Model the fold of this input.
Amino acid sequence: MGALPKRRISNRRRKNKRSHHSLTVGKLIACDNCGEMKQPHIMCPSCRTYRGRQILEAFDEE
Done:
């Protein structure tokens, strides 16, 4: 048999422990090239540029 708690955890204490479980909204910035909103440090999905350079040029031809 496993370990059992000696006392019941109150609602207040249980909710305080779970206070850090909430999700946060990701940040968005405007792309320097096209102006679309994108996540920072990630390639822009609309114009496929990152830090002023074109990325995935080989996949555009297919």
Notes: Strands lie at 29-30, 37-38, 49-50, 53-54.
